[in-house]
Amino acid sequence: MSVFIDIAFQAxxxxxxxxxxxxxxxxxxxEDPETRHxxxxxxxxxxxxxxxxxxxxxxxxxxxxxxxCRRFIPALAHKLMVRYEDFRLxxxxxxxCNAFDLHRVKGVYGGxxxxxxxxxRITLMRFGRWDTDTVPIDDVVRCALLMDEVAAMQPKLQILxxxxxVDLEGLSIRHVRQLTPTIAYQIVSLMGVSFPIPIHALHIIxxxxxxxxFFYVFKQFIPAAAWERVHFHGYDMESLHKHxxxxxxxxxxxxxxxxxxxxxxxVRKVDRYKDDFMVQELRALGxxxxx
Length: 291
Hints:
Blueprint: H1 2-12, H2 22-29, H3 36-50, H4 60-69, H5 74-90, E1 109-116, E2 120-125, H6 137-152, H7 155-160, E3 162-167, H8 173-176, H9 181-193, E4 199-205, H10 211-219, E5 230-234, H11 237-241, E6 260-262, H12 263-273, H13 276-285
Parallel strand pairs: 2-3, 3-4, 4-5
Antiparallel strand pairs: 1-2, 1-6
Helix pairs in contact: 1-12, 3-4, 3-5, 4-5, 6-9
Protein name: CTD34
Pfam families: CRAL_TRIO
GO molecular function: phosphatidylinositol bisphosphate binding
């Protein structure tokens, strides 16, 4: 298993455009290799002509992230880019941290490998496990930010996308008190609203009466079009299985996946396998990266 995990993480920092995913890109992203360059050029022209944002990069590979996330519709990709750049400008302080020193945020995030062909990367968010006494809320947000920025560099995830499971077991008033409207906006933005990561669905499980308070803070920032991708399952794992094959879920959710990659493991492995391009990109975004 450790050999498989190492291979998976070497792929995590890869920007190789694998022809194996060409059919998936066509099906999921409406990407046509023969017309791809025209869509990229159309998006590039929109950026220059409209002047609504000033991205640090406009090369083909960068613009491709946004087009894949919006089914190769340049106008929608441009709107997403404007939101992403706006998020960065308003929250630049979140990037001002040591990218690979966030492993202290324990237990909150996890994910399953390999990716599901239907659901993409399955990411677990367990806010009830967050230790509010030792970990500031900004660092919890920074972890999601780092995961998003690294995922957006990877062509495979640009195509396959992400499915998010929000497990609220253990959530208490001490957690909810930390959730200001600004924090809620940041988290919703990182869940795909303002980032070039395709989000298939958001599944909310194992919650109690606090859900109403918790979700009230968030729902004002969730676009109406995204509500059809939000599913509430409570403790009914069979309901969750209707959307996600148990093969890609951990045993605690009635699944058969016995290796859930914790955020601590993910950040250590990405740090180990990072290349010069990733280091340069993260530094350009504002992160501190030690080599």
